[in-house]
Design a protein that fits this description.
By secondary structure, the protein is an alpha+beta fold. The protein contains 16 helices and 16 strands.
Length: 717
């Protein structure tokens, strides 16, 4: 009975503790997470309003599922009437909160659609008058001037309307509403004046009028929607505050109070349990002493007689008859003594068998010891061999490391020799004045090299890509450098195609390619510049010459800019400021498809000469741009001539830049992407261009290793 009472007391105490740990604590954690999720829903809704990105709407959907999951857990944990009542209230507040969230998202989508429609009508309102302006700009007359003024006023009203609507959406400024109303008042006056003076233009003007009416309607609708959205946001925030107040100020204190009540009940149960166990312990102690007395009288005394008989057995004086006479007790102990006598007889026989087995075990143990000693000897020999091998591996590793260091030192020394072979920066500046150089060997030494020299009033510049890279490519580059020095400086050959013809012959001769069938060679782009004659000669073996024609001119009006974009070959335009732009055209002159050197069937290889006269190019550009300057004033049109600034930027390069792998898909940079990059940075100085190109290449590689040597040389003439 006492055990049952103790069991129920302990069971009650355990249940109270489990309620706190397994139920009330998760209950409280659920409420805290609901607060966090509600705040996350609010941030996602506001993020969608501000940025209109789909990821925020997806976040609202995700957090909604999490909150509803925790709401189900709340209903599972709620036990008291007050907790259930607050749960129903929580459910109602959450539904209102999410209804406002959905309404805000829907009205934001509606507002975005209206803004897109407003942009479409605004484009019509802008393009139709501008198209009419472009039609009348070539005919100077008072009527056209008046029509131009009215069209500009219509465009001005369109821009003021759009600007005022945008300001109202952002700042809710009352002055924006006033400007909108003023625009609506002025437009009918301008419309009436235009149709009165130019009734023949009614057809296309009706399109403008229809777009303006739709623009005003959409604008008012956007303003109305913006007011509704702000009202919904206020209600949404109020519901969020109500939800936070319910969770934080009503439900959480209720859970904390429930935990305290369970702890108090647990303390009372523990107190009663301890007192009851003390009483039971005293009763059990009394029972113990009573039972001990009975056991001594009926069990211990007969066992002592049995013990004496066992001692006789130990001294060899025991027999079954002696044990039966010494045991007077006629009970279970007496029967135990008789059984003990029988056991002793059997024990003697078993002991003899054990002795026999023990001898066999000793012999087996000795044999195992012998085997272990032999095994230990074998293990020692293996360990010694292992240590010897480790020492040899370490010695060989050290030798390889030393050999690698010697090899690296030799290659670094070769790098210094190769760098000494390349033109000095002072030489480059003196011959090219303004230039840019990107030179990145893949390994320590490079198979790419650049060469510059001056002979007979010609400045010769070359960018060369030899077969291979690293040490083999470096050897080829040194051979190519020396051969160019011999051809230009010693043999006085300055025409690019003749230089390449001679270089081809010498490479085949030096490498004995006819006899060895060696196929090494080089790709090259080579130019000869005559600054006084404003002439540039080019020949290439597989590699091209790329140059950018840059025209810096003033733009007096939008019509002038429109002419430059549509009626001249310079489609790439970079605005320097409001009145000045750079017009850029990229031209690529391909080299011949044949390389320098290698095994060929033809007896002689002839390369193509390309001639570029910069003075002629400038005259051609000037003639193309001459009619492009039109200045619009309120009274008349004035034609003005300009003398644009014209410059030429030339680039020679190997294939390392455009063949480099990278990007998100691990593909080549490509020649077209290189040309686009050169167009984008052409307005920069050469120092800035170098940083821009190096940054673009580094960003493209994204962890990919450099595939080949990279060489890019730019200069202006």
């Amino acid at each position: 009975m006492a055990g049952i009472v103790i069991y129920f007391q302990v069971y009650s105490l355990r249940n109270n503790i489990e309620n706190i740990v397994n139920k009330k604590e998760p209950f409280e954690k659920t409420v805290l997470e609901m607060e966090t999720i509600a705040s996350a829903i609010s941030n996602a809704v506001l993020g969608y309003i501000n940025n209109n990105q789909i990821k925020y709407r997806n976040q609202v959907h995700t957090y909604r599922k999490k909150f509803e999951k925790h709401l189900k857990e709340y209903k599972k944990y709620a036990e008291t009437q007050q907790e259930i009542r607050l749960g129903k209230r929580l459910d109602t507040l959450y539904k209102n909160f999410m209804n406002f969230a959905d309404s805000i998202i829907n009205i934001s989508n509606l507002q975005q659609d209206l803004i897109e429609k407003m942009k479409e009508q605004a484009i019509i309102m802008k393009e139709v008058p501008e198209y009419q302006l472009s039609k009348i700009v070539s005919e100077i007359s008072p009527a056209n001037l008046r029509k131009t003024q009215l069209l500009l006023q219509i465009r001005s009203i369109n821009e003021d309307m759009l600007l005022s609507m945008g300001n109202y959406i952002i700042t809710r400024d009352v002055r924006s509403v006033v400007k909108i109303v003023e625009s609506e008042k002025n437009y009918p006056l301008i419309k009436k004046a235009f149709l009165r003076e130019f009734p023949a233009d009614t057809a296309w003007f009706n399109k403008v009028d229809k777009s303006y009416t739709e623009l005003v309607r959409i604008g008012h609708r956007i303003i109305s929607v913006e007011d509704d959205k702000r009202h919904l946001i206020v209600n949404f925030k109020n519901e969020l505050n109500s939800l936070d107040a319910l969770l934080n100020k009503e439900i959480q204190p209720l859970i904390v109070e429930g935990n305290r009540s369970l702890l108090a009940e647990s303390k009372n149960t523990a107190f009663y349990t301890v007192n009851f166990l003390t009483l039971v312990a005293l009763i059990m102690l009394g029972i113990f002493f009573f039972v001990h007395k009975l056991i001594r009288q009926w069990i211990i005394s007969p066992l002592l007689e049995l013990y004496r008989g066992i001692k006789k057995l130990e001294r060899g004086q025991f027999s079954q008859k002696d044990l039966q006479e010494s045991i007077k007790t006629k009970n279970e102990i007496g029967d135990l003594a008789i059984a003990f006598g029988n056991m002793a007889s059997n024990l003697k026989k078993s002991f003899e068998d054990i002795q026999t087995l023990w001898k066999e075990q000793i012999e087996l143990t000795e044999q195992l010891a012998l085997n272990n000693r032999e095994l230990e000897k074998t293990q020692s020999e293996l360990l010694a061999s292992k240590m010897e091998l480790e020492v040899k591996v370490e010695e060989r590793t050290a030798e390889l490391r030393e050999e690698r260091n010697r090899l690296t030192a030799s290659i670094n020394y070769a790098k210094r020799i190769q760098e000494a072979m390349l033109p000095l920066a002072e030489t480059m500046r003196s011959l090219l004045q303004d230039y840019m150089l990107i030179y990145k060997p893949r390994d320590i030494v490079s198979g790419d090299f650049y060469w510059i020299g001056q002979k007979n009033d010609y400045t010769i510049v070359a960018a060369v890509d030899c077969t291979g890279h690293g040490v083999p490519g470096a050897f080829m580059s040194m051979i190519g450098n020396e051969l160019l020095n011999e051809i230009v400086q010693m043999r006085n050959i300055t025409r690019p195609d003749l230089i390449l013809n001679e270089l081809h012959k010498l490479v085949r001769k030096v490498l004995q390619q006819e006899e060895t069938h060696n196929s090494d060679g080089m790709d090259i782009a080579l130019v000869a510049i005559h600054y006084q004659h404003q002439e540039l000669l080019f020949a290439g073996a597989k590699n091209p010459l790329v140059y950018l024609k840059t025209i810096t001119t003033e733009v007096d009006s939008p019509f002038h800019l429109n002419f430059l974009q549509k009626d001249t070959p310079f489609k790439h335009i970079h605005k320097i400021n409001e009145n000045k732009v750079n017009l850029v055209e990229l031209v690529a002159i391909k080299g011949d498809i044949m390389p320098i050197g290698g095994i060929q069937r033809e007896q002689e290889r002839l390369f193509t000469l390309h001639t570029l006269n910069l003075a002629t190019e400038k005259a051609k550009i000037h003639s193309e741009l001459l009619p492009a300057t039109i200045v619009l004033s309120e009274v008349e049109y004035i034609l003005a001539d300009q003398e644009p600034e014209i410059s030429f930027t030339f680039y020679l390069f190997s294939d390392g830049f455009q063949d480099q792998f990278g990007g998100e898909r691990g593909r080549k940079f490509t020649t077209s992407r290189l040309y686009e990059t050169l167009l984008q940075c052409n307005h920069l100085s050469f120092e800035e261009q170098k940083h821009y190109l190096e940054y673009t290449l580094k960003n493209w590689m994204q962890g990919y290793k450099q595939l080949d040597d990279i060489l890019l040389l730019g200069f202006r003439v």
